[in-house]
Amino acid sequence: MKKIKTIAIAITMMIAGTTIATAHEEKGPHGGQIQDANGYHIELLNKDGKVSVYLLDDKAKPMSNKGVTGNIILQLADKTSETETLTAIGDDGFSVNNNKVSTFTSCVVTFKVNGKTATAKFKAMKEAAAVYQCPMKCEGAKTYSEPGKCPTCVMALADVKKKEEDHKHK
To answer: Where are the alpha helices (DSSP H) in 1-110?
Structure first.
């Protein structure tokens, strides 16, 4: 009976740990998704068809990539998976050298740092397309998919989403 209770507690702790590890909604210092990872944080930025990964300290601040190694397992849209070694870029980042990287649906990132292993799982987040509109609303609610100038008043079109996000933060 005691053994069953111990196993049940261990399973509950693992489930709770998994829930906590995937609960981050905030953005990391580079603008990517952030996950807890064994006393560290891992940030994944998937932008413009390129994936960058960052190892962060326990306060989610960027760390040097010196002496850190890592890999990423990509689950691709065609239901296959590929494992890639992360390549250091700059002082604190890593990149993925795989032309299929933009088609991943989920991935697992693992870093080896100071004798410890830090691992986090991420789901791919779709980039929302930018929407532009005249700030004076000369054309009512008409929007554009590309930046440019309003054909009526010639003002620069404003990014509607950015304007909404700025408004939410104030």
So the answer is: 2-21
| Listed residue (101, 118, 85) closest to 45, CA to CA | 101
Tens of pLDDT, residues 136-159: 988 888 888 778 899 999 999 888
Q: Is 77 left (phi over 0), alpha (psi -120 to 50) or beta?
A: alpha
Look at residue 61 and tell me whether its pLDDT is greater than 50. yes
Residues 6+ apart with CB under 8 A from 122: 33, 35, 44, 106, 107, 108, 109
Q: Specify the DSSP element, H or E, that contains 37.
A: strand 33-37
Task: For CA atoms 47, 50, 56, 61, give the dihedral sign.
Answer: negative
Q: Is the pTM of this model over 0.85?
A: no
Mean pLDDT across 67-75: 95
Which two structure tokens, joined as six digits, stand for 111?
């870093």
Q: What are the distances in angstroms from CA 87 to CA 20, 54, 141?
A: 28, 11, 45
